[in-house]
Amino acid sequence: MKSRLKRLRFYLLSLVIATGTSLHVQSQNVVLSTDTDSVSVGDVISLNLKIQLNQSADELLFPDSSSFPPDLTYLDLQRFQLTDFADSLRYRVQYFANQDVYIPGFPIGVVTGTDTTTLYSNSLTIPFRSILPAEDAELKPIKPILPFDRFPWAVVLIILVLIAAAIWAYLTFTKKEEPAVVQKIVQPIPFQSPVLQLEQTLISLKEDYNLSQTKDFKYFYSTISDSIRRYFEDLYEIPALESTSREVLRYLDAFGVDHEMIQSTRKVLNRSDMVKFAKFTPTLDSAWNTYAEALDFLERAKLIDASRVARKKSEYEARWEEVEPSSENMDEEEPKVEAN
Q1: pTM exceeds 0.90, yes or no
Q2: Which of 27, 185, 297, 333 would staple 54 via disulfide (CB 3.0–4.6 Å)?
Q3: Gap between the Cα atoms of 208 and 211, Å rounded
């Protein structure tokens, strides 16, 4: 009888401990959710982060813009503090990609006194929704491939005859003695600063191009993105003009380019790709917001890359000094032609 009572007490004590532990775990959690069931290029997504604690905390450390994947551009954040034990955040991000969005669990730091505890939210996956009709999703050839039944020997024969006639005429009517080559003084081409070229392009685009009348957003966005690509190609010697936007951003990370310049470049290139390749039609306000982003890039480049531009100028002028002809070869020689 006593052994049964001891066993019953043991079971009751285990049940109380397990229940308390479960309540403790359930009372302290972080839930990440969204109202969006799918996304397409350019969509603005709201991400809701709800925090439930089992005791009040001195401070909560929330994730910043660096916690989001590269396909999501951070826009803004709203906080709704409900009680000392519950808090809520709403992030607004914009999506620029063509695949499903995967958001890993967000870390939340809970500071109580001198102790800091890290809670993690659940991960989240949002399916990608294509804006193309289903019948247009598969790429089709622009024109049918035309077969060639036989080799055009007649055309080749005519071309060879013309080449032979041109060689005969050149050897017959050309004078046997060519005039002496006149040496000319080569004037050095002034150094063109990449920062100045970028500034002139942006100023010309605003003053000489009326976007509200033409509505040619593709030209407007291409001019802005190509001017920033050309800046990195001229100053950093990165093959930016012939690379994709993702490849350009990888080059910038590898070269250690300033973080704010990379962020501005990412926004301009992503928005330009939407207009050029995703058939996205922006508003005038969004177009001028992209122009303002390019101006922010320009001002940051003036500050960060001043020493790099000066070094580039010195190297350019040193190369011109190496190829500049000496003073005794500057005199022009008159051509001497003997009569036939």
Answers
A1: no
A2: 27
A3: 10
